[in-house]
């Protein structure tokens, strides 16, 4: 893990404390949704997909236009976290 400056470490500690009251699966769900939100904001801050189909379209369009970007990778990973959690429930 990369060493963080004191401000970033403080934020990480705050986030950890905030999420510590949740079960591990719920923490992962929050992180997955945050990755999606952050990724989409990086791709296009004016777009907020409302459904799974629209989300996939935004990610795939970004990859077609610009290749693998930080935004598309984050949104993609968030989506995979949520899909994995959903499969585990079945």
Description:
Helix content is 77%, strand content 0%. It has 90 residues and is mostly helical. The protein has a domain at 29-89. The longest helix has 20 residues, at 24-43. The protein is globular and about 35 Å long. The N and C termini lie far apart (33 Å).
Architecture blueprint of SSEs:
Layout lengths: L5 H14 L4 H20 L8 H15 L3 H20 L1
Helix pairs in contact: 2-4, 3-4
Strand count: 0
Q: What number is the mean pLDDT?
A: 89
Distance between the termini: 33 Å
- Based on helices, strands and strand pairing, what is the structural class? mainly alpha
The shape, in one word, is globular
Strand fraction equals under 5%
Any low-confidence stretches, pLDDT <50, length ≥5? none
Helix content: over 70%
Q: In DSSP terms, counting alpha (H) and pi (I) runs of 4 or more, how many helices?
A: 4
Tell me the series of helices and strands, N- to C-terminal: HHHH
**Rg estimate, integer Å:** 15 Å
User: Biggest sheet, in brief?
Assistant: none
């Amino acid at each position: 893990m990369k060493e963080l400056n004191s401000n970033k470490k403080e934020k990480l500690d705050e986030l950890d404390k905030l999420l510590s009251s949740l079960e591990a699966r719920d923490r992962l769900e929050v992180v997955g949704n945050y990755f999606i939100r952050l990724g989409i904001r990086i791709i296009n801050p004016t777009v907020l997909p409302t459904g799974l189909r629209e989300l996939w379209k935004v990610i795939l369009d970004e990859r077609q236009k610009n290749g693998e970007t930080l935004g598309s990778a984050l949104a993609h990973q968030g989506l995979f976290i949520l899909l994995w959690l959903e499969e585990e429930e079945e």
